[in-house]
Amino acid sequence: MNPGADTTRRRILLAATALAAATPWSLARAAGAGRPIRLVVPFPAGGGTDVLARLLAQGLGRELGTTVIVDNVPGATGTIGSAQVARSAPDGNTLLLGVSGSHAIAPALFKNLPYQPTRDFTAIARVAHGGNILVANPAYPANSVGEMVAQVKKSGAPLMYGSWGNGSGGHLAGESIRQATGIPMEHVPYKGVAPLLQDLMGGQIQVALADVAGAMPLLQAGRIKALAVTGRKRSSALPKVPTLAEGGVAFDTEIWFALFAPARLPAADVERLAQASERVLRQPELKEKINHLGMEADPISRQGFDQQWREDIATWARVVKAGGITLE
Questions:
Q1: Res. 91: pLDDT tops 90
Q2: Strand 94-99 vs strand 37-41: parallel, antiparallel, or unpaired?
Q3: Are 274 and 125 a contacting pair, CB within 8 Å?
Q4: Cα distances (Å, whole numbers) of residue 167 to 21, 172, 317
Q5: How far apart are CA 287 and CA 280, in angstroms?
Q6: Cβ partners under 8 Å of residue 36, min gap 6
Q7: DSSP track, 182-204
Q8: How many Å apart are CA 105 and CA 32, to the nearest integer?
Q9: Which stretches does DSSP call E strand in the chain?
């Protein structure tokens, strides 16, 4: 026997055991990649935003040579996780995958919002964008948004439409349709997209606004039908479905998902993260995966997104004020 060889084998086994049990944080440090990056998702695990964050985290980790760990901090329509990041140190180690709901709509809805988006955050990159979808029960007589408007005007009865909650993007898109067309509409809020679409299929409501990814399986199965998509252009996942604007409704504001850092992040760090994000988002494989989620990955400049962000804040504020919508 060789005692030295046995000792060496034991050391190797111990090292392998420690490596298998190590956390991503300790692995990143051991690899000399610097501190891992914490990417906060202000919604529960398993949803579209969470899936998008995990795709982004993988790519950013490779580009930056570190580990990017997704941390779900849900609650209050995305504002709890957002507020947590706003209070974090501006050192580039804590980022947020914010959405138009938390960073463009929330300022108009909440009187005591614990952060001010344009003051407390630095925009790094728009990750994805797109629209919601106006869907109907297959038995509903209208097959387009124009036919829907005509149907409501003819009947004179309010159109009952559902969304995934008060103050949600779907709720405000419906309110925007009401304001643009003048037809009577009444909102029916649900606690999520799944029960909303279940009632739509069951005929409890005739029309709803949902996210494209959530509605896609039921559309493909013919259990619901599409009338229009919101946003500035048609969804690549549903190229035959016209936009609201094409149907005569003057509303093209889209939803978006964006990477944010706390305010006062040094310019060099902002540029480093922005360039890495752009390289990731231009990868064909990632773009295809994002398209499968019913979103689009079209990188734009930080200045271009900053302009869109501020314009959307003003647009949603007008919609909320005109509709008299408030959330405590």
A1: yes
A2: parallel
A3: yes
A4: 43, 6, 12
A5: 9
A6: 24, 25, 28, 29, 66, 67, 68, 69, 93
A7: ---EEEEE-SSHHHHHHHHHHTS
A8: 40
A9: 37-41, 68-72, 94-99, 121-130, 132-136, 159-163, 185-189, 207-211, 225-229, 255-262
The three-state (H, E, C) secondary structure of 73-113, written as one string = CCCHHHHHHHHHHHCCCCCCCEEEEEEHHHHHHHHHHECCC
Interatomic CA distance for residues 274 and 264, integer angstroms: 15
Tell me which residue has tokens 């990143």: 28
Measured CA to CA, the distance from residue 183 to residue 146 in angstroms comes to 12
Token pair 């494209």 in the structure block, residue: 212
Residues facing 256 on adjacent strands: 129
Sign, CA dihedral 290-291-296-302, equals: positive
pLDDT at 19 over 80: no
- Residue identified by tokens 């948004």 is 145
- pLDDT tens readout for residues 254-281: 899 999 999 999 999 999 999 999 999 9
Closest among 76, 99, 112, 80 to 316, alpha carbons compared: 99
Instruction: Give the C-alpha separation, 34 to 44, whole Å.
Output: 28
Distance from C-alpha of 259 to C-alpha of 300, rounded to nearest angstrom: 13
Candidates 4, 305, 290, 323; CA nearest to 130 is 290
pLDDT digits (tens, 9 = 90+) for 194-252: 899 999 999 999 999 998 888 999 999 999 999 999 988 899 889 999 999 999 998 88
On whether the CB atoms of residues 138 and 224 are closer than 8 A, the answer is yes
Q: How confident is the model at residue 10 (pLDDT cuts 50, 70, 90)?
A: very low
**pLDDT of 35:** 85
CA distance 10 to 26: 22
Residue type, 305: F
- With tokens 């494989």, the residue in question is 285
Overall pTM surpassing 0.90 (yes/no): no
Read off the DSSP letter of residue 168. S
